[in-house]
Write a structure and sequence with these properties.
about 350 residues; alpha/beta; Quinone Oxidoreductase, Chain A, domain 1; Rossmann fold; 7-stranded mixed beta sheet; 6-stranded parallel beta sheet; 19 strands; about 25% strand
């Protein structure tokens, strides 16, 4: 089968790789139809690592995906050949202390699609996943929308771990795909106001179209003053979704005493710092969001019940052979890109 593999820093090429086989009775072989380009994929593409996870070349990335079931193991019961499925990329053991305590997102033996040292990613013609990682989708649901259920599940999970949003004042700093995937479900929960920032004007504009109370570009205006003018007592919860030090500082400034900072973005650096004086005096709670836990079906329900529309998130589409072009576009934040989708049928 063919796979698009990383060959070095900003290096990518199509190669023939061995066909994947079913190894367990609950395995499912999936023909990939769509892959979304994620920020973590870009980290591996431009720097070859995320923290301690270092790429050994050649390696296939990609984890936001959807496709069609083409083969099932003898113990598979809930999907069948021909089913269209969204894929949960985290393969958990179900046996460790974390899994048994309801924290499968911190499974001690977990493997993740496209994560170095764990398992090759979905930027290939086929993948094999456990049945429990496959979620059937409706015929009317596009593969692109189904693919977005992965980052949307992270947004749903982050919201669940935050304060109740009904009547709350909310900030979202960084309106890339993850920030947007926080905003869309947050809007369904009746917040008093949602305030968004991004350095790309097109992303701030899309936040406004998606119902944000206010959105602005921190490179063009004093976003702290603009938000404080509207929320003089501060915000109840702020979702940091870009992994940038200056955004973390702004979060601490914006939060009211007793507020909660939800760390969702993945920083480019090994360390970030906090304004400890303000954080301590305000008694700010910091919560690190690790992927998601049990929210994929809820994310799909939001999409398939037409509660939210994720279609506008996909700003650029590419064929499989043009994957490198897609990665370069996203890495350079070019042409107002929000989500680049690689479509295998294109």
């Amino acid at each position: 089968m063919r796979a698009m593999v990383l060959t070095g820093i900003r290096g990518m090429e199509m190669r023939e790789v061995p066909d994947l086989q079913l190894r367990n009775p609950t395995d499912v072989r999936i023909r990939i139809d769509a892959v979304g380009v994620c920020g973590s994929d870009i980290h591996y593409y431009v720097s070859g690592r995320i923290g301690s996870q270092v790429v050994e070349y050649p390696f296939t990335v990609g984890h936001e995906c959807a496709g069609t079931v083409v083969e099932t193991g003898p113990a598979v019961r809930h999907v069948r050949v021909g089913d269209r499925v969204a894929v949960e990329p985290a393969i958990t053991c179900g046996e460790c202390d974390q899994c048994k305590s309801g924290r499968s997102n911190t499974c001690r033996n977990g493997r993740f699609l496209g994560c170095p040292g764990q398992t090759a990613g979905s930027l290939s013609e086929f993948i094999v996943m456990p049945e429990r990682n496959c979620f059937a989708i409706q015929d009317r649901t596009s593969f692109g929308d189904a693919t977005i259920s992965e980052p949307l599940a992270i947004g749903v999970y982050a919201i669940r771990k935050s304060v109740p949003l009904a009547g709350a004042s909310v900030g979202i700093l960084g309106m890339g795909p993850i920030g947007t995937c926080v905003l869309l479900p947050a809007q369904t929960m009746g917040p008093a106001g949602v305030y968004c920032t991004d350095r790309i004007d097109a992303r701030a504009d899309l936040a406004k179209k998606n119902g944000a109370t206010w959105a602005g570009n921190p490179d063009r205006e004093d976003v702290l003053s603009a938000i404080r003018e509207r929320e003089p007592n501060g915000l109840d919860v702020v979702f940091e979704c870009c992994g940038q030090q200056d955004a973390v500082d702004q979060c601490i400034e914006l939060l009211k005493p007793g507020g909660k900072l939800m760390m969702v973005g993945i920083p480019d650096v090994d360390r970030i710092t906090f304004q400890i004086d303000q954080m301590r005096r305000k008694e700010i709670t910091i919560y690190n969001v690790r992927r998601q836990d049990g929210c994929v079906q809820d994310a799909l329900d939001l999409i398939e019940n037409d509660t939210i529309d994720v279609g506008a998130m996909v700003t650029h589409r590419f064929g499989f052979e043009a994957s490198r072009e897609a990665f370069d576009l996203v890495a350079g934040y070019e042409d107002g890109v929000l989500k680049a989708m690689i479509e295998f049928g294109a």
